[in-house]
Amino acid sequence: MNGQTYILTVLTPDHRGIIAAITSVLAAHDAHLLELSQTVVRDYFTIIVVLTLAEPNDPAVLNPELTARLGPNATVTLVPYRDAPTAPPRGERYILTATGNDSPGILPTLSEMVANRGGNFTDLGARVVDGKISIIAEIEVPGDIRLDQFQIDLQHAGSEAGLRVRLQHNKLFVATNEVAFRRISNDS
Amino acid sequence: MIRNDAIFDTIRMFQEENLDVRTVTLGLNLEDCSSPVLAQLLDKIEAKIVGTAGNLVSAARQVERTFGIPITNKRIAVSPIAAVAAGHGVDALVQVARRLDRAAATVGVDLIGGFSATVQKGTTPTASALITSLPEALSSTGRVCSALGVASSRTGINMDAVLRTGHTIRAISEADRANAGFACAKLVVFANMPDDNPFMAGATHGQGEPDAVLNIGVSGPGVVKRALQRLIEGAEALSAESDPESQLTLADLAEEIKVTAFRITRVGELIGRELAKRLAIPFGIVDLSLAPTPQIGDSIGEILETMGISQVGAPGSTAAVAMLNDAVKKGGAFASSSVGGMSGAFIPVMEDASLARAAAEGSLTLDKLEAMTSVCSVGLDMVAIPGDTPGETIAAIMADEMAIGVMNHKTTATRLIPVPGRQAGELVSFGGLFGESVILPVHDVGASDRFVRFAGRIPAPLHSLKN
After folding, report:
1. Which of A88, B66, B274, B402 has the most other CB atoms within 10 Å of its CB?
2. Which residues does B162 contact at the CB level (< 8 Å), separation at least 6?
3. Residue B268: what are its φ and ψ, rounded to 5°?
């Protein structure tokens, strides 16, 4: 489909009918969805949508129409999509986990260690319950790093903050949890 | 991404429950090394082992680093030497054992299997020489392991070989008196000997296998035990809240074992395929045997205790191990289409601290062990017996175990260790993975001498006639 590609984000207190409201507005303007991801964090609904709008649809109308449908507490942004200036580093996919006492500064510490080794976060979630934090991140790490040393460094950084930090290859989690292991393992 | 709870379940298996890959075993065909000239035979054997397995250990370490999972043992299994060294005599076979030992040391593996012969129906001159060479071959080398196939469901039991092996085991023990007969721990006597078993001491690269192949043996008793403990504790907590749905049955325990075995097997296959790819050889099988170690928390006996057998060997032990063994197979068979080897729950007394304790306390006897091996893998394994047990009685113990395998179409085996100069109830310790235990009493010694001295062959069972 020809047209301009945009990134739409919506942040709003969660309630019934949000997806229906967003998609009906987009459909009314012939928006073509390319990819979206949605989650709810502590009762806040968030969504990021990559879409294409064909001429003569006017992107300027989307933002006010969505705000009108979702209410004044919704934050809606629409920006043109641009290719990333540099492709993110690729590599082997790993799962990083950290559990223990909630510790200010642990995420910057861990993420800086990942970045210093050329790694890239591709998925990240964290939750604090009763003062205990659990972090699960999917990262891509260059294949030529000394993984055992990286694991030791992460564990050391975690233990200083009272956290158990682990790094294991994503294939292990696929193998132990997915039924169709061999068919999907090449993509893991 | 995988669900959060599944991620933490997987992490727990590696970090807290001792899940490792117990062994990666390179199976290697040596039949192309045959030569009537001993020097050539020895050089060809060494060259092939070093040439093919030279980077086994380093590649395994790379895989360990990539996946963060320990591979406890890296080993080699070669073609039965009785076939490779056909035509050679006793002294030459001892030299072959020493050359295997040297080649294993060169490539950095701790054990090399295949100083073996299959004699289930009859004994060739070279197989006979190999059996004669065992006392010196096993006591003068540190890494060489041997397996003898003396029975099968298709042929019956070669009682000539069984009787002779009984005496040979005594001779091996005496030859290694300085080490309390430890060399006997490197000899496994089989019924229905597998061609692709990765576990030592019985690993041999059998007929019909590729030139080189990578087989893998997983571990995981600790993972199974903890999974059962969590299930039971969770049900008890719910029961305290009077939840009628929380009542566990043995079917629930079997289901938990099955799911856990699935996950363990998958780890094994993943690591095996990755290592085989790096070595550029075919991946063979994953043997999903639960293999214990003397380490606390890594024990088949502790699994049985968790299942409610407070003293291993008590009535119910055979039923419990049968259920465990079956559930492990069901989970593993669904996890992988490449399951092979022995694939059951091992009960090696010396290598399992809980079993060794039960033996010391008198609840686990030789007879109860034999009963348990009729429903699990693999046999009377790492059992220390009095050093003065006659060869005929050792042969009779083996004959009983072979009969269980032959009649039930399953692999059974013995790894019996007569400890020179020691009696029942005394402790013997080999250290490391080989562990320790008291010496088990053998009752009615000599009472079956007449039977085993008939020798000849116990014919194949009726149900061997399947064609």
Report:
1. B402
2. B150, B151, B189, B395, B398, B399, B402, B452
3. -60, -45
Cβ A48 vs Cβ A36: under 8 Å: yes
For residue B459, report the phi and psi dihedrals to the nearest 5 degrees: -60, 160
Chain-chain contact of B66 with A97 (C-beta, under 8 angstroms): no
Per-residue pLDDT of chain A (188 residues; tens, 9 = 90+): 568 999 999 999 999 999 999 999 999 999 999 999 999 999 999 999 999 998 777 878 888 999 999 999 999 999 999 887 676 667 889 999 999 988 788 889 999 999 998 899 999 998 888 888 999 999 998 877 788 888 889 989 888 888 999 888 999 999 988 887 654 444 44
DSSP conformation class of B460: P
Nearest chain B Cα distance for residue A66, angstroms: 30
Would you call A175 and B266 a contact, using CB atoms and an 8 Å cutoff?
Answer: yes
Q: Which residues pair with A40 in a beta bridge?
A: A45
Amino acid at A170: N
Residue among B420, B415, B458, B450 nearest B435 (CA): B415
For residue A82 the two structure tokens come to: 């641009």
Instruction: Please name the residues between 333 and 362 in chain B that touch chain A, using a CB distance below 8 Å.
Output: 335
Nearest to B2 among A92, A166, A177 (CB): A177
B16 interface with A at CB cutoff 8 Å? no
Contacts of B12 in chain A (CB under 8 A): none
CB contacts, 8 Å: A95 with chain B: 1-2, 7
Nearest CA in chain B to A126: B4
DSSP for B396-444 reads HHHHHHHHHHHHTTS-EEEEEEEETT--TT-EEE--GGG-EEEPPP--S
Q: Is B272 left (phi over 0), alpha (psi -120 to 50) or beta?
A: alpha
**In A3-105, alpha helices (H):** 18-28, 62-70
| Kind and range of the H or E run holding A152 | helix A147-160
**Residue B68 contacts A, CB cutoff 8 Å:** yes
Q: B317-335 and B366-373 helices cross at what angle (nearest 10)?
A: 30
Beta bridge partners of B215: B25
Q: Is any Cβ of chain A less than 8 angstroms from the Cβ of B3?
A: yes
Interface mutation vs chain B, best among A133, A172, A187, A188, most B CBs within 10 Å: A172
